[in-house]
Amino acid sequence: MHEFFIVQNVIKTVEDLMVNHPKKKVVKAVLLIGRFSGVEPELLQTALDFFKQGSVLKDAEIVIEIEDLRMRCQKCQQEFSKEKWDLTCPFCGSFETEVLSGEEMLLKSLELVDED
């Protein structure tokens, strides 16, 4: 259940950002979750629903986007996606691959409006 701690950190990050925008409110927040980040989107949503009440995100729509595992082969330089954890290149079979994305979790964007 590390998702609860993640959500608390997301809220703290948004609160810190909102210090520079005192007459605005958050109407939308987009979180990007890598498929292999170790974060369970359903648990994250549950934690968000619980903790956002009484926070700067209380009235915000929260969108969770899932990022596939994107990799690049060091040998043939092809880029590709994977749906399961498999480091082999589908083009040349090399294990010399690097992860480009799909392991991250980040606050991608915030949409703010003037507070009435």
What is the CA-based Rg, rounded? 18 Å
What overall form do the CA principal axes indicate? Answer: elongated
What do the pLDDT scores average to? 93
Number of strands: 6
Roughly how many Å apart are the termini?
A: 36 Å
Provide the spatial order of strands within the biggest beta sheet: 2-1-6
Number of helices: 2
State the low-pLDDT regions, or none.
none
Could you estimate the helical fraction of the residues in percent?
10-25%
Give helix and strand order, one letter per element, not per position: HEHEEEEE
SS strand fraction: 35-45%
CATH architecture: 2-Layer Sandwich
CATH class reads: Alpha Beta
In this structure, how is the largest beta sheet organized? Answer: 3 strands, mixed
Using brief descriptors, characterize the structure shown:
116 residues, alpha+beta, hypothetical protein PF0899 fold, three-stranded mixed sheet, 23% helix, 36% strand, elongated, nickel
Describe this protein's structure.
With 116 residues, the chain is α+β, with helices and mostly antiparallel strands. The chain is 23% helix and 36% strand. It has one domain (2-9, 25-114): 2-Layer Sandwich (hypothetical protein PF0899 fold). It is built from 2 helices and 6 strands, in the order αβαβββββ. The strands form 2 sheets. A 3-stranded mixed sheet has the order 2-1-6, covered by helices on one side. α1 crosses α2 (41-51). The radius of gyration is 18 Å and the shape is elongated. The mean pLDDT is 93. Keywords: Metal-binding, Nickel, Zinc. Zn(2+) binds at residues 73, 76, 89, 92.
